[in-house]
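User: Can you fold this complex?
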Amino acid sequence: MTFKLFMNSPAIVGLKVKTLTRRPMTIFERVYVISAFKGLLITLSHLLRNMAGLRKLPIYEYPEKPKPIPEGYRGEHRLMKREDGSVRCTSCMLCATACPAECIEIVAKDIPDPAIEKQPEVYNINLLRCVFCGLCVEACPVDAIRMDTKKVDMAGFTREEFIHDINYLVNNHPEGMSPYSIAPTEHK
Ligand code: SF4
Ligand code: SF4
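Assistant: Here's the predicted assembly.
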């Protein structure tokens, strides 16, 4: 019923349907020999132009010369320290709560400083589950966790290698990056 009403509508009435006849494929088109040969010629032309350096493509001799990582790109996590060298994290669990992949494990311990109260005894991030969304960094109220290490080429032979513990995270500060949360060079 609905179809008939649609076909009888004023906008449709009067339109002509043009029928196209499809040209039958030749024998060469059906065996795809010429098409495959054309594809190979295109590939060969790209190869020759690249070898002759006509395109000036950016070539990175990875891993000796890794590709530059843009600012703000999220890489491996690092835990920041206070200026006295202690870990800045207060075990508030906000990062673990915000993490959609549930890959942060924190076990808190009491410390005598009443201004801080707690620090992590265990702080593990399972990078095999992490989706690098950065929500843990956003959630942290004390700038204790960052993902600005620019380490993105992670590889390993065992699953355990991808579980970064607190010792790894507090020392995961690449050259030129301050391990301290408040540093004049980082806060412009
Ligand atoms: S980047 Fe996202 S998925 Fe990874 S630990 Fe942080 S919140 Fe979780
Ligand atoms: S890293 Fe930040 S958000 Fe996560 S537990 Fe420590 S202080 Fe809280």
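The first strand starts at residue 78 and ends at 79. The mean pLDDT is 87.
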